[in-house]
């Protein structure tokens, strides 16, 4: 059979099969790396407090790696731009969202100040901080929430959605952080509100079995490409052997007839 395999036609086909196997193996390696990368825990850097502008910039998205990052930001709360949300976890019936203008970048930032079980008290807490004085807020930074998460019940909302605040805030110059800060107890106490229950994000390791399955699948394809070449060569060899046997039988039959 290997005499057949050494023919130029089958050598060329073998090279093609090896190229395909290499491509499939590369894809399998890529899928395996993805499954391992997705299984790694997120970096344990969120508990080191950093300046907000060292973590993100106005207009930049908030990836999962910085969700819950402890930050410090200094600025001024805008009077008249307090928003009250309801139906949220973390404490209270109503949560107060303030419009903070970052003193360093000049960009707008939603800040979850605190909570109250009374709407008027929640509003008063936001107004208490919007007195024109510069304040320093410490808390955790999170990605923006979608307006689709809002609970539209009698005009009430539940999502910290900068995409909606741009239409409701009176003082806004188009520069905004695509995320929000949940303030700690210091800011909540200054506003006379309850502190939002917030804690360090969990770092669960979830191995991506789907990518692992794809990796195994590509390896099978790579092996199949070589096996297919072997099968073609074997079929060609068996076909030629069958033709030889038939030719030999024809010659033997002809000799017998002559006798």
Layout: helices, strands, pairs:
Elements: H1 2-5, H2 8-38, E1 50-51, H3 52-55, E2 69-77, E3 83-86, E4 94-102, E5 108-116, H4 119-129, E6 134-143, H5 162-168, E7 179-183, H6 185-190, H7 209-258
Parallel strand pairs: 1-2, 5-7
Antiparallel strand pairs: 2-4, 2-6, 3-4, 4-5, 6-7
Helix pairs in contact: 2-7
Question: Mean pLDDT, as a whole number?
Answer: 83
Structural class: alpha+beta
Runs in which pLDDT lies below 50 for 5 or more consecutive residues are none
Indicate the proportion of strand residues: 15-25%
- CATH architectural group of the largest domain: Beta Barrel
Based on CA atoms alone, the radius of gyration comes out at 34 Å
Mind describing the biggest β-sheet? 5 strands, mixed, barrel
Q: Please estimate the helix content.
A: 40-55%
Biggest β-sheet: strands ordered side by side in the sheet: 2-4-5-7-6
Structure in a nutshell:
Pfam families: SURF1 (PF02104). The chain has two domains: 2-38 and 207-258; 50-190, OB fold (Dihydrolipoamide Acetyltransferase, E2P) (Beta Barrel).
């Amino acid at each position: 059979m290997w005499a057949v395999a050494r023919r130029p036609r089958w050598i060329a086909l073998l090279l093609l099969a090896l190229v395909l196997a290499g491509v499939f193996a590369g894809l399998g390696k890529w899928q395996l790396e993805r499954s391992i990368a997705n299984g790694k825990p997120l970096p344990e850097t969120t508990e080191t407090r950093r300046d907000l502008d060292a973590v993100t910039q106005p207009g930049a998205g908030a990836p999962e790696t910085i969700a819950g990052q402890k930050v410090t930001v200094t600025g001024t709360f805008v009077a008249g731009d307090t928003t009250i949300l309801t139906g949220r976890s973390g404490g209270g019936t109503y949560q107060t969202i303030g419009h903070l203008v970052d003193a360093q970048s000049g960009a707008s930032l939603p800040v979850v100040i605190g909570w109250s079980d009374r709407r008027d008290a929640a509003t008063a807490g936001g107004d208490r901080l919007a007195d024109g004085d510069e304040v320093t807020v410490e808390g955790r930074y999170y990605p923006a929430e979608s307006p689709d998460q809002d609970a539209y019940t009698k005009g009430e909302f539940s999502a910290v959605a900068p995409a909606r605040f741009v239409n409701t805030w009176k003082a806004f110059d188009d520069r905004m952080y695509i995320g929000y800060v949940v303030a700690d107890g210091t800011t909540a106490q200054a506003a006379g509100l309850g502190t939002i229950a917030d804690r360090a994000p969990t770092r669960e390791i979830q191995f991506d079995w789907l990518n692992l399955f794809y990796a195994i699948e590509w390896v099978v394809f790579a092996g199949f490409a070589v096996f297919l070449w072997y099968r073609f060569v074997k079929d060609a060899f068996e076909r030629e052997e069958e033709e030889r046997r038939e030719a030999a039988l024809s010659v033997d039959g002809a000799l017998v007839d002559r006798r």
